[in-house]
From TrEMBL:
Keywords: Repeat, Transcription, Transcription regulation, WD repeat. Belongs to the WD repeat ESC family. This is Fertilization-independent endosperm protein. SMART domains: WD40 (SM00320). It comes from the Eukaryota.
């Protein structure tokens, strides 16, 4: 707890400790004065810098004590940061598993997860969506969603609380909605 993870164009995922600032975070929930008068705090140095990818990292999420991250390598990577308490910023990474995403080799394609982190959904540059079960090893592909009219890169997905609905935002300005139906059918889709 008390950690955030960030990612960016320097090819790294940085983990930051919020422990010493947590009283300020809690105070912010009950602050009634002008927002400009709230005492600003800065986190100056990350406690861990991970070089899991060899290119820009455009998406990351916590999965318990593990991190899911994605670059332009046609995969989402699940890994465990192992920090050195006596040496802030240093540590090692254990790659736990990889979730392949074909044709996902362009920058700014973001994945999403349901509330309980049972599944992750990600689009690719051909307008297809891959839905992975996150709580299994080896990785299990739940669904591969496609539609004849969805051919533009899917830049971002959003999953509903229970994962039964997936929205996808495409580069051509369309938004697609995918709903789980009965177990005999994989999904239905509609374009907005």
């Amino acid at each position: 707890m008390y950690r955030i993870a960030s990612c960016g164009m320097d090819n790294t995922v940085k983990i930051w400790s919020m422990k010493e600032f947590w009283p300020s975070v809690e105070k912010s929930f009950t602050w009634t004065d002008l927002p400009s008068k709230f005492p600003t705090k800065y986190v100056q140095f990350p406690v861990f810098i991970a070089s899991v990818h060899s290119n820009y990292v455009d998406c990351n999420r916590w999965l318990g004590d593990f991190v899911l991250s994605k670059s332009v390598d046609n995969e989402i990577v699940l890994w465990e940061p192992r920090t050195k308490d006596q040496s802030p910023g240093e540590g090692t990474v254990d790659i736990l598993q990889k979730y392949p995403v074909p044709e996902c080799d362009i920058w700014f394609i973001k994945f999403s997860c349901d509330f309980h982190y049972n599944a992750a959904a990600i689009g690719n540059r051909e307008g297809k969506i891959f839905v992975w079960e996150l709580q299994t090893s080896p990785p299990s592909l739940i669904a591969r969603l496609s539609h004849a009219q969805s051919k533009s890169p899917i830049r971002q997905t959003a999953m509903s609380f229970d994962g039964s609905t997936i929205l996808s935002c495409c580069e051509d300005g369309t938004i697609w909605r995918w709903d789980a139906v009965s177990s005999s059918s994989s999904s239905s889709s509609s374009q907005v």
